[in-house]
Amino acid sequence: MSAVGRFHRHADGTAHDHAHARDGHEHVPHDLGDHSGYRTGSERVEVLERIFGENDRTAALNRADFAAVGVRSVNLMSSPGAGKTTVLRETLLRLAGSMRVGIVEGDIETSLDADRLAGLGAAIALVNTGDGFGGECHLDAPMVRSALPRLPLSDLDLVLIENVGNLVCPAEFDVGEHARAMVYAVTEGEDKPLKYPVMFRSVELVLINKIDLLPHLDFDLAAFRANLRAVNPAAATLEISARTGEGVDAWCDWLRAQVAGAPAPVIG
Amino acid sequence: MHELSICGAIADIATRRAGERRVESVHVRIGQLRQVVPDTLTYCWELVVADSELDGAVLDVEQVPARIECRDCGRTGEIGDVPVFACHVCNSVEVSVIAGEEFVITALDLAAV
Ligand SMILES: Nc1nc2c(ncn2[C@@H]2O[C@H](COP(=O)(O)OP(=O)(O)OP(=O)(O)O)[C@@H](O)[C@H]2O)c(=O)[nH]1
Ligand SMILES: [Mg+2]
Ligand SMILES: [Zn+2]
């Protein structure tokens, strides 16, 4: 027999959903302050632990490892195909020689994106998320941690993390980055910030990509900006085309500012 | 979606906290802004606990609506289905999220020893 989920709203406005185990025993509403347990013989034990505490502890370790050698890290997120890898390619071409960059490439099954970034002077560590436990849709802190030994961290200035293309899950996972940026493509529609507010709220910068296509679309940039402001008034934006290179220099300046803001290495 | 990872994390904590005792229920509090679909979560929970020490344990999800507080006029209000993070009274965008980002295990119901 499959589980039956029930949903009801309490007087205080909170809603509960109950997954009932196979034996289908009855649930009696109760308050959390009740330590007597709602069935004879059971005891309510208060826990109060953050569900992603383990991930967040690992993220803190990653951040500390970056900080120890004066590296800044940026978590780059987007929907599938918005242009993360193309932006990274253009970025590496521009930063070559002036900044030492490492890439953590999150990809579900393949090395296709990592291959596209090879030979441009950046150290690349690929993380396949396909065999992670339910991890196929995002990078988490342990996955990024597993990639760090494959980067020459102490020789780098910046680590760019290409997350898995997904507008929901990556936003929930701190991977140890210092800043978050998004690639949003003008082909995605103006309403995306309202549909995925958690993602759009979690970033400092939104790259509005594929602006070379604007003449062919009826995309309303002002409406997009209004929607973005509704969920994240503080987000910076840059209009770019990873295809023509327009605006990519401004993004590189943003990255340079990130690196300049890095605290000095702890160990000299 | 990431409901499987969430259930895995909940199960790890519950197993560790329960020690030798059988877990009857796991109570979690999840804010509206955590993008968790309750039905998907309960479905994944069944998959994750099947044939484990937690088999049969009930996942009790308390959802918390998102609320904002205006730093300009002090009013608080719920964010509705359209996620506009601005004050409903004075339209200021200087608002703080005061509820809706919860993501915690609050309690376990453990069988008597
Ligand atoms: N016209 C146009 N096409 C672009 C632009 N940027 C990327 N593309 C194209 O969009 C497609 C997807 O680009 P990718 O860079 O692979 O996107 P991604 O976000 O890395 O994709 P995933 O890693 O699969 O999520 C490719 O065909 C790119 O050539 C742009 O600025 N303009
Ligand atoms: Mg890519
Ligand atoms: Zn106000």
Plain-language structure description:
The complex is a heterodimer of chains A (268) and B (113). With 268 residues, chain A is α/β, with parallel strands linked by helices. Chain A has a single domain (2-16, 37-260), classed as Rossmann fold, CATH 3.40.50. Chain A has 8 helices and 10 strands. Chain A has helices at residues 53-68, 84-95, 112-117, 141-147, 192-195, 197-201, 221-231, 248-260, and strands spanning 5-9, 15-19, 42-50, 72-78, 101-107, 123-128, 158-162, 179-185, 205-209, 236-239. Chain A has a 7-stranded parallel beta sheet, with helices on both faces. In chain A, β5, α3 (112-117) and β6 (123-128) form a beta-alpha-beta unit. The relative contact order of chain A is 0.15. Mean pLDDT of chain A is 85; it is low at 1-37. By secondary structure, chain B is of the alpha+beta class. In chain B, 46% of the residues are buried. A 3-stranded mixed beta sheet of chain B has the order 2-1-6, covered by helices on one side. In chain B, α1 crosses α2 (38-49). Chain B is 25% helix and 33% strand. Chain B has one domain: hypothetical protein PF0899 fold. The radius of gyration of chain B is 18 Å and the shape is elongated. The chains are: A alpha/beta (268), B alpha+beta (113). β2 of chain A pairs antiparallel with β2 (58-64) of chain B. The structure holds guanosine-5'-triphosphate, magnesium ion (MG) and zinc ion.
Question: What's the topology here?
Answer:
The complex is a heterodimer of chains A (268) and B (113).
Chain A: E1 5-9, E2 15-19, E3 42-50, H1 53-68, E4 72-78, H2 84-95, E5 101-107, H3 112-117, E6 123-128, H4 141-147, E7 158-162, E8 179-185, H5 192-195, H6 197-201, E9 205-209, H7 221-231, E10 236-239, H8 248-260
Parallel strand pairs in A: 4-7, 4-8, 5-6, 5-7, 8-9, 9-10
Antiparallel strand pairs in A: 1-2
Chain B: H1 3-18, E1 23-31, H2 38-49, E2 58-64, E3 67-70, E4 76-78, E5 95-99, E6 103-111
Bound molecules: guanosine-5'-triphosphate, magnesium ion and zinc ion (ZN).
